Write the structure tokens for this entry.
Amino acid sequence: MRLAELSRRSGVSTATIKFYLREGLLPPGHRISSTQADYDEEHLRRLQLVRALIQVGGVSVAGARAVLTAVDDASLDQLSRMGTAVAALPQALPAPAEDDAEAPAAERVAVELQRRLGWRVVPENPAHQALVSALSALLRLGYPCDGEALLPYGELAGRLAEHELALVEQFEAPTTQLEAAVALTVLYEPVLLSLRRLAQAEQASRRLRGDAGAGDGGEAGGAED
Amino acid sequence: MRLAELSRRSGVSTATIKFYLREGLLPPGHRISSTQADYDEEHLRRLQLVRALIQVGGVSVAGARAVLTAVDDASLDQLSRMGTAVAALPQALPAPAEDDAEAPAAERVAVELQRRLGWRVVPENPAHQALVSALSALLRLGYPCDGEALLPYGELAGRLAEHELALVEQFEAPTTQLEAAVALTVLYEPVLLSLRRLAQAEQASRRLRGDAGAGDGGEAGGAED
């Protein structure tokens, strides 16, 4: 397809597509004349991923380039490419500051939690560092930060990850799976956070009204008492 | 306690405490002379909440003031105060833009999802609007956005909300419960997001290695196949 059709099908303006091409976020089209290039389904898919990263994930152009470089790095195996690509996404919190007095205790809680969940501990994963920062804030501010408080988050995250890997495996080709893994990590994050807020409102409303089985169905059962 | 002790116990500098006092984020101390004031445990707790909002939640000073105004609004019942305070926190995404062509379809998916979960639909909740924005992005970019993909997120959010309300109910006084509800909404968000990334890495590593029961224990079972 020509640039105009790529723009129409993706909903991204031709000016933005040209910008992504210049920035190396989109591979060049196949030259068909000195002024025209042809784009295929791969370009469309890549364009959708770039939009997900930048518009929903708030990823910078440089950050998106780092993610895509990992996705395309044929020198790595599939697992390393996925790990590197996802690790290049922005984290919920930066790593703990050098002078964070609670960081060593938070690190111990983070390691113990992951061991209880049966997960390998990978301290260099930026998500591990973000977890330590989050736990450090809980400790510093005196909010619950023990196994009883934290384990349900880990268990539910584990179940979610199984579901999410199954979603990713619906995509067949290895590179498409990698692109989907990155896109779904970014795109389902606001789904999860907004559903958490809505579930809290629903639960608070039920409890404060002394109303245990409200709602008009609850067939899924997830929010029932 | 005096300002210096409040600073020592909270880890917040006296300059920052004075700034919060001027901005109305902290109620004035009890005057004991023309130059000195006395602060109590309530001030310490409130100071911790303000730190959670601003430092971890990335809430602006004006945003924090809106949250605290709702927490302190004695004209509202407990449920309304909690709802208003949590609704004043930043959302994962802004409401859909006026010209968002996918918003009506995303709205239908959001309503249907909450109905299946047995939740009351409250379209004016900012989290409902954030959910619609997130679903609109999934639809626009062609990623899975049906009940099969979304229901597990809602079910897990429902279970998390039950756990979180139980954590909040450990705090006894009504105002302390409200403060805890706000603080825990903000502070556990990065815990959840970083655990989700770690769980994804663990699951991807197990699946791609064809290694179903890895880890050194897995007593909690949440991440097992």
